Amino acid sequence: MEKIAKKFNREWIFKNVSLDFEAGDRVAVLGSNGSGKSTIIQIISGYLTPSDGRIRWENESLKIPAGEVFKYVSICAPYLQQEEELTLRENIEFFRKFKKLKSDIDIIKFAQIIQLEKNLDKPLKFYSSGMRQRVKIGLAILADTPLLLLDEPTSHLDKNGIFWYQNLLSENANNRTIFVASNSEETETFLCDKKIMIEDYKS
After folding, report:
1. Which of 47, 68, 124, 151 reaches 20 to 30 Å from 78, CA-CA?
2. CB–CB of 179/145 below 8 Å?
3. DSSP letter string over 13-33?
4. What CATH number should be reported for the domain whose range is 24-38+71-201?
């Protein structure tokens, strides 16, 4: 990221974010509610473009066009909509049209991993908020992508759900580049060894 800045309407959310990250980095994006954590995550994902500055993605020193970045990224975030009229089975099938799951994971195994195998054919609209969050987390972490973006991943999870998230992420971190946006919750950023403090880039 080279002098990245973003504004909405006339308000600058952050300015002059110049940072480099390499494969395998694990980065906590920290700040208060409304500080711009989700905005940074969306810029990194290629979903949003910065108002100023530029972001460059590379794979083995080859530049990745902005329109191709989605192929390398999986994301879990509160603003991502789920197909709630579809069952879990149908949601997994729909997801796999755009992203691959890790090679050894089929629909049944996926449902078992997120501990919802008994609800495989139930529409997501009948799931609790915690169950829907497990689906989001599972699809992001178990996708076969080198870049993983997690925005407040433990929201809606109880104590057991948080423990499940931590184990799942630990088991599937490998050499992936991981960004976790959080309100300084160590339960979410426990793997991270680098930080972006959004408040450091306020005008």
Report:
1. 68
2. no
3. EEEEE-----TT-EEEEE--T
4. 3.40.50.300
